[in-house]
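[SOLVED] Predicted holo structure with zinc ion

Edit: marking solved, answer below. Original request kept for reference. I posted the sequence and ligand SMILES and asked for the 3D complex as C-alpha cells.
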Amino acid sequence: MPRYCVNKNAQSGTRDHEVHVWDCEHGPDEWNKLDLGNFPSCHGAMAKAKLLYPTADGCYYCSRECHTS
Ligand SMILES: [Zn+2]
C-alpha cells in the first residue's frame, strides 16, 4: 500500500497543495512534505489531504486518477 504525502507550502511552478506518492520525482522537497499515511489508492489520500487543504489536487504524474485540473 503506497504512502502518500502533500506539500505544505506552495512551490514555484506547482499547485499549492498537491498529493503525491511518497517517492514521486515530482513531489515536494523533504522540508515541505507532510505525511498523509498509507492508502490503497490516491482517493483515500485525497480525502485526508482535503481536510487539511480544501484545494488539494492529485499529482498528474503519480496520482492521475485524482488529478482534476
Ligand atoms: Zn507526484
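OP edit: Strands lie at 3-7, 18-21, 33-38, 57-58. Thanks to everyone who chimed in.
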